[in-house]
Amino acid sequence: MKGYVFILLALIGMFGFSQNDKAEKTELYKNYREDQFYASVTYNLLNEKPSAVSQSGFSSGFHLGFIRDMPINQRRNVAIGLGLGISANTYNQKSLLIQEANNDIVFNIIDEDDYNVSKNKFNTYLIEVPLEIRWRTSTPTEYDFWRIYTGFKVGYVFYNVTKFESEVGNVKLSNNDSFNKLQYGLTLSAGYGTWNFHVYYGLNPIFESNSKLNDESINMKALKIGLMFYIL
């Protein structure tokens, strides 16, 4: 009889521990979210450049922000992310001279050897809103995991500057209206643990449609390739 009582008590204890473990696990998963802050470094390329324009040097981008992770399944490894961030971008290029003439912004192709050009670039600074669909292999207790985050990003250019420096003269323009204020594109981040590949593919031109080069619209778009770092 004592043996039956012992077995019964053991079963009750195991059941109790099991219920407690289940409750703790449920509570742990209840508030589990991932990757709230992000930082990215990118190499910036210009897509669909005019044939006479090329890129020179290293064109960089730095991106910081916060994303609200909103899981949509019970395991909480699939989520929607909506965030807010800031982005600073440099585009070094050759042969395209952006200057002001008669109160208008004009674009011309030049031979930089004739000017002995030391700097020719433009910079954009944006407030960005990323929207992502997020899949990962993580749990509340695992910190190294695979992730694939894909989505869409909208940015507002709150400041821009173009710089041209040469032996003949210097040209600097700030906040000119030739830049598209609203810029948007597709994003993809994928990787394991700390190191994640990141790409942004711009869908609309950097410059406004009324920005012309030889009577043709300048349809250059941004392509940013680099590394993304996530912090909980």
Fold blueprint:
Elements: H1 2-30, E1 37-47, E2 54-55, E3 60-71, E4 78-94, E5 96-101, E6 104-109, H2 112-115, E7 117-136, E8 146-166, E9 170-174, E10 182-192, E11 195-202, E12 212-213, E13 216-217, E14 221-231
Antiparallel strand pairs: 1-3, 1-14, 2-4, 3-4, 4-7, 5-6, 7-8, 8-9, 8-10, 10-11, 11-14, 12-13
How are strands sequenced across the largest beta sheet? Answer: 1-3-4-7-8-10-11-14
Please report which band the strand proportion falls in: under 5%, 5-15%, 15-25%, 25-35%, 35-45% or over 45%: over 45%
Which blocks of ≥5 consecutive residues have pLDDT under 50? 5-12, 15-25
Radius of gyration: 26 Å
**Would you list the SSEs in sequence order as H and E?**
HEEEEEEHEEEEEEEE
Percent of residues in helices comes to: 10-25%
Distance between the termini: 55 Å
- Helix and strand content put the structural class at mainly beta
Please provide the count of β strands. Answer: 14
Task: Count helical runs.
Answer: 2
Shape: elongated
Taking the sheet with the most strands, its summary is: 8 strands, antiparallel, barrel
Q: What does the average pLDDT come to?
A: 87
Characterize the structure shown:
The protein has 232 residues and is mainly beta. Helices cover 14% and strands 58% of the residues. It contains 2 helices and 14 strands; from the N terminus they run H-E-E-E-E-E-E-H-E-E-E-E-E-E-E-E. It has helices spanning 2-30, 112-115; strands at residues 37-47, 54-55, 60-71, 78-94, 96-101, 104-109, 117-136, 146-166, 170-174, 182-192, 195-202, 212-213, 216-217, 221-231. The strands form 3 sheets. An 8-stranded antiparallel β-barrel has the order 1-3-4-7-8-10-11-14. Strands 5-6 form a two-stranded antiparallel sheet. Strand 10 (182-192) and strand 11 form a beta hairpin. The longest helix has 29 residues, at 2-30. 24% of the residues are buried. Residues 5-12 and 15-25 have low confidence and may be disordered.
